Amino acid sequence: MKIYKNFIINKIHKNSIILIGNFDGVHLGHRKLFGLAKRYKEKFNLKIGVLTFDPIPKIFFNKNIKNFRISNFDQKKKLLRELGVQFIINKKFDLKFSKIKSIDFIKKIIFKKLSPKFIFVSNNFRFGNKRKGDVNQLINYENKYDYKIVKPEPLKYKNKIASSSLVRNLLEEGYLRKANKLLKRNWTVIGKVEQGRKIGKKIGFPTCNIDIKDYVLAKPGVYAVRVKAKNFKSKLKGIANLGYRPTFSQKKLLLEVHLFNYSGNLYNKYLSVEFIKFIRAEKKFRNAKQLQKQIKSDLLVAKK
Asked: What is the pTM of this model?
């Protein structure tokens, strides 16, 4: 799969199907879109490409948003490849790009640089300076700039529109099972193991400390997890605490993972942590002994 960081694309990728969006999480709603794109690909013998932006425009315009992403770019890339995408234009979203007029985006970028045959967008897609461009404007210029807009009906999940916002809300509220169903896989965080305060080791439960960067903050608490690293032959089972460790007055948000039946040094290694089940919310204990007792109980639940 070819990755572009700008709009200068190979001739082979022009006259294609282009899907525009953030596609954060690549959930069931996105999958429906790509399923339809695949049918267009087979019918018209075209390639499938994606135009996406980094950072997500909402994050760019609101610096207060820290934890937002459902998946990082590498995860998104892998999922899109599995759905038949042949190239991705991952455009840096900056101040200069945000000031492009909507008509210039259509004329100078879509028409002159990308030349797509079909453009797939959601009904609420906005673009251009001050978000003045919308789907109607794209449709109005179809004939002039030789493309066709496709805007499928959004997928509904339990009477709600399947969206990245819905997945984020479910994760934040602790409805992990529902979020995983909407993602059609287990929500997964990839992060680097860092040096910690070794509190887990002191109380008998050594953990890998992972900075979750800009991933969405799922409900702080304890989770059953499966973990993968490059040197693991298979996924290992474990338990994780996501939160601020109120018992020890931790200020920094941290993902701590304790692996069952594993001993070894994982510092500076990247771990893929798959969230299987929400066990309980984070809470403050009177002392380390009380916490130890609770962890033993959590371990039994996680192993089950």
From this structure: 0.90
